[in-house]
Design a protein that fits this description.
Blueprint: H1 5-22, H2 38-68, E1 79-82, E2 88-94, E3 106-111, E4 116-122, E5 128-134, E6 140-145, E7 151-156, E8 160-164, E9 170-175, E10 185-189, E11 193-199, E12 206-212, E13 217-222, E14 228-233, E15 237-241, E16 247-252, E17 262-266, E18 270-277, E19 280-287, E20 290-297, E21 300-308, E22 311-317, E23 323-329, E24 335-340, E25 346-353, E26 357-362, E27 379-381
Helix pairs in contact: 1-2
């Protein structure tokens, strides 16, 4: 037995040394009294060594688990962490019908049936001011509330942000579908493309800036009834409407509507301004070598004052839009008048020939006639 003593103490010393090195942070334990009987001492020593081996093995396993990322400790809910005064700091509970949930600190709860989970943070008034979690559809949700527990901000994993005022009315909404939003400012998608929309606090008045799917920019303004009153398009178009929806101003590259109030745009070879009301309209513009003013009745030409190749000319038309009277200046600088029938064919000319010789000519041209007035001739010619 004596010869066995050195081997036993040698084993004990190695185990104790390893234990002290690896668990130097553990609290010391008071050893039990050593028996006086040598045999009892050996037996007691074996018991201590065996217990020490078990502790070292458990500690080694824990350290190995920590190194590989495996959990060293598992805690089963529900549990609660409190401060020195017993007030909850952090709680974990499983949501259910009879769940008793703390209303202070932070609470994590889980509903196993739907998979919903949420972290709640309470203020000093025991009002939930933060809610962060996953809804039953698997989407993330973040809700922020003010000190009175009123929801002021919501962020959803479906791609939606909503900021509200103290009365719960939406101030700002960002989503991929703003058509159903009632917030004052909306940013997102609608039927045409992407839009930034600002609405008034009362009624339907507001303004919007959009980028359409065709790649064009648009600006729209609505009145208190939600009716469009102004439109600016990226294709080069400006439209102003009255309360009844009638155009009062239209600026476009290709004007073709005589019913609008004022139209400013581009003609085939130049530019024009048109003013219309009640079927009557007047246009002013230039096209190539022609510039002038024209009047219309229900879209039919009624008269015009034009400058053609630098020469002024006045045209009057009948109700069919056919020119029946012309007054102008000839290329030589002389004045002339032409009178036509209902089909526009010239039947009377008044002008000059030669140097300062007046001429009145009726068609079809026949003889000059006799007498001072040329009757029954078809033309009169002055004499020097």
């Amino acid at each position: 037995m004596i010869s066995a003593m050195p081997r036993t103490f040698t084993r004990f010393g190695l185990i104790v040394g390893a234990f002290l090195v690896q668990v130097s942070g553990l609290h010391a334990q008071v050893p039990s009294p050593i028996p006086s009987d040598p045999a009892a001492q050996i037996f007691n020593l074996i018991q201590r060594v065996t217990a020490l081996e078990q502790k070292v093995a458990a500690l080694s396993q824990a350290l190995n688990n920590k190194g590989t990322g495996a959990p060293a400790t598992r805690v089963k809910a529900p549990f609660e962490v409190v401060d020195d005064a017993g007030r909850p700091i952090f709680s974990v509970v499983q949501f259910g019908k009879n769940t008793q949930m703390a209303t202070s600190g932070m609470v994590i709860t889980h509903e196993p049936t739907t998979g919903a989970a949420v972290l709640l943070a309470f203020n000093k008034k025991k009002s939930t001011v933060v809610a962060l979690g996953a809804d039953p559809d698997g989407q993330g949700q973040l809700t922020l509330r003010d000190a009175q527990g009123r929801t002021r901000a919501e962020l959803a994993g479906a791609g939606k942000l909503l900021i509200s005022d103290a009365k719960g009315k939406g101030l700002l909404s960002v989503s991929d579908d703003i058509t159903q939003s009632t917030a004052h400012i909306n940013i997102g998608k609608d039927e045409e493309g992407y839009t930034v929309e600002v609405m008034s606090g009362k009624g339907g008045g507001g303004a919007s800036i959009s980028a359409t799917r065709k790649g064009l920019g648009e600006v729209g303004v609505t009145d208190e009834k939600g009716e469009t009153r102004a439109y600016l398009g990226g294709a080069g178009e400006l439209t102003i409407l009255d309360a009844a929806g009638n155009n009062t101003l239209n600026v476009t590259e290709h004007p073709d509507d005589d019913s609008v109030g004022v139209t400013i745009g581009k003609s085939e070879k130049g530019y024009m301004i048109s003013v219309g009301a009640g079927g009557n309209s007047v246009s002013m513009g230039s096209s190539g070598s022609v510039a002038g003013v024209a009047t219309y009745l229900n879209g039919v030409p009624a008269g015009s004052l034009m400058l053609v190749d630098g020469t002024p000319r006045l045209e009057l038309a009948n109700d069919r839009g056919t020119s029946v009277t012309s007054l102008g200046v000839s290329p030589h600088g002389n004045g002339f008048i032409q009178v036509g029938n209902a089909d526009g064919a010239t039947v009377v000319d008044i002008g000059t020939v030669g140097k300062g010789v007046g001429l009145v000519r009726a068609y079809p041209v026949g003889s000059p006639g006799a007498g001072l007035i040329g009757m029954p001739g078809t033309f009169l010619v002055g004499r020097e």
